[in-house]
Amino acid sequence: MESRVKDAVDLFMSGYNCSQSVFVAYSDLFGMEREQALRLSCSMGGGMGRMREVCGTVSAMAMVAGLVCGNTDPKDQKAKTENYATVRRMADAFKARHQTIICREILGIRAAEKSAAPQERTAEYYRTRPCARMVETAAQIIEETFPELLAGEPEET
Questions:
Q1: CA pair distance 156, 61, nearest whole angstrom
Q2: Which of 20, 53, 77, 139 has the CB geometry, 3.0–4.6 Å to 47, for a possible disulfide?
Q3: What burial class does residue 45 get, using C-beta atoms within 10 Å of its C-beta: 0-12 exposed, 13-18 middle, 19+ buried?
């Protein structure tokens, strides 16, 4: 079993947004094409479209939870409840480590973002942002919550 936490962080450090980095690190386990996973998770970056709301890494955790234990029957209240409870446990684990799941609070931003344009990824950006740690935390929580995801993977030698 090989953890994908480092893969998620490496994706972020290569320029993908927070949500993409977490989601794409696991998407192939569900037979999803990389490009499709990147597109699907792209909009959640920056606290959803850079609005600085729920951290994109938390959204990515919820998306993975949907792939693992999401329901497809609109009448199956038990399955919906179990999925929502899983998402809440994951969010609570994130909050326990970082006190919040809100992007702007993590970044220490008080005013609303006026621009949708992402900041250029520079050495200074990576040095001053906590986002790589958030990516790491989210990936760790995914692996703690769903250890079965990696159970069948061959170990690297």
A1: 25
A2: 53
A3: buried
Contact 44, 19 (CB under 8 A): yes
Instruction: Kindly report the pTM of this predicted structure.
Output: 0.92
**pLDDT per position as a tens digit, 66-79:** 999 999 999 999 99
Rounded to whole angstroms, the Cα distance separating 26 from 34 reads 10
54 has which bridge partners? 102
For the chain, how big is the Rg over CA atoms in Å?
16
Three-state DSSP string of 19-52: HHHHHHHHHHHHCCCHHHHHHHHHCCCCCCCCCC
> Which residues lie closer than 8 Å to 28 by C-beta, 6 or more apart?
34, 37
Q: Where are the beta strands (DSSP E) in the chain?
A: none
